[in-house]
Design a protein that fits this description.
With 194 residues, the chain is an alpha+beta fold. The chain contains nine helices and four strands. It has a four-stranded mixed sheet. Helix 7 links the parallel strand 2 and strand 3. Helix 5 runs antiparallel to helix 7. The N and C termini lie far apart (79 Å).
Length: 194
Amino acid sequence: MRTKIFTKLIKKTANILVIARKALTLQRKINGVMLEWLKRHAWKACIRQKRIASSNLAHSAQKWDPASRNACGIFRNQNHTAMSEKEKFQLILDVLKKKAAEILPKGSQVSLYGSRARGDASPDSDWDIHILIPGEEKIPFDLWDKYAWPFVDVGISMGEEINPRLYSFAGWLKRSFLPFYKNLEKDKLTFFRN
């Protein structure tokens, strides 16, 4: 009798341990997902802290170390003390074009949309870019890392918030009924095609 009770107790304990192990594994997965999310989104807070006094890129660049300044190849002349919003706009578009030419596959298109494209942006507005690549309708997440993250990285190095959206041409056309699609198509400023 005692052995049966003891055996049942061991089985229940083993089941509880299996459940606890599964819960721990699930918790680790959740923590991994949260850590990945933080890696992808915590940079926004860093960008806001970099904007100490103004959104003037040349002024901000003087505060960075030389390796960071030259990471994008844009701050070669350190005699700049002020930069107009128009110069800043053109400079950032040129850097984005250069990055797009480096990383995007043939047949891609990159457009600026939102307040920057409409021309009603404030100096600390973010840069919304729309990336279209050839391929299947659904884009695997690893392609976001390959094609969209480098633009975010450029923004970090320049002290600007760049928010890329990545779609395939087929996937984008399937969204043609959405208000976002219609607004973007109306406002977009296409600055790169290859």
